[in-house]
Amino acid sequence: MREELQNYSSELRMHIIDMLTEAGSGHPGGSLSAADILTYLYFQEMNVDPTKKDDPDRDRFVLSKGHAAPVLYGALAMKGFIDLEELKNLRKLGSMLQGHPDMKRIPGVDMSTGSLGQGFSASVGMAIGNKLDNKESRVYVLLGDGEIQEGIVWEAAMAASHYKLDNLVAIVDHNGLQIDGPNDEVMTVSPLKEKWESFGWNVIEINGHSFEDIENGFSQARTVKGKPSVLIADTVKGKGVSFMENQIGWHGVAPSEQDRINAFEELQGLTIKEGR
């Protein structure tokens, strides 16, 4: 199964590069860093079904770092919520695929996001709602490490602990870079583990590009009762495309046509090697 997941993540990365090149704008770095996490969520962890997209008992996913929309759109298309051809319309006038997710227009999107921190707050509300309705479904939310500099994040984190939301799992995409530079230079978010623990969360540290680690992290989170869990996922910004990896300049710059060709050569090589 892990080999299949690796193949899915390589395909997802190709969709990210493809749609951003077609759009001529967008955010490749933080989309690529989250590709393995989204792959595991949509193809292994979450109870979601494109044929029953409005199922009240489905799990929910919130992309709180909404600027990484391409990784979500790619995953939704691969899962069957939207047509793969629709990815070519990213950021184009009249397209359902705007620069940030829109829950009113895109099947499978549970929360419109963009203003950093607000998606996380909404996910806490969703988890409280599930508790009140005695539902077993879970809520997953992905945050950027630069995003957690927002005060609204910690207010929501405090509420989630207070209400003992063990049906809520946060994932911090900890790639160490944000739009203005390294986190540690802009405003350090360290020590992450101790911060979340002090707010009453169960903390699980993982390699965000290891499917074994990702699997173990989500499995551990399911066993914890009485408190929410957060996976601090160490990742590489631009992961999978060598010339984008750990390069702050690729936070919000679209690939050129030559960049797409070069990236595809790398990513297609990975899928061939992995047997797809």
UniProtKB/TrEMBL annotation:
Entry-linked PROSITE patterns: TRANSKETOLASE_1 (PS00801)
Domain Transketolase N-terminal: 10-269
Keyword Transferase: yes
Positions in coiled-coil regions: none
GO MF entries: metal ion binding; transferase activity
Cofactor(s), by name: thiamine diphosphate
Keywords: Metal-binding, Thiamine pyrophosphate, Transferase
Keyword Metal-binding: yes
InterPro entries xref list: THDP-binding, Transketolase_CS, Transketolase_N
One Pfam family linked to the record: Transketolase_N
PANTHER family per record: TRANSKETOLASE N-TERMINAL SECTION-RELATED
Family: Belongs to the transketolase family.
Name of the protein this chain belongs to: Transketolase
Source organism per UniProt: Anaerobacillus alkalilacustris
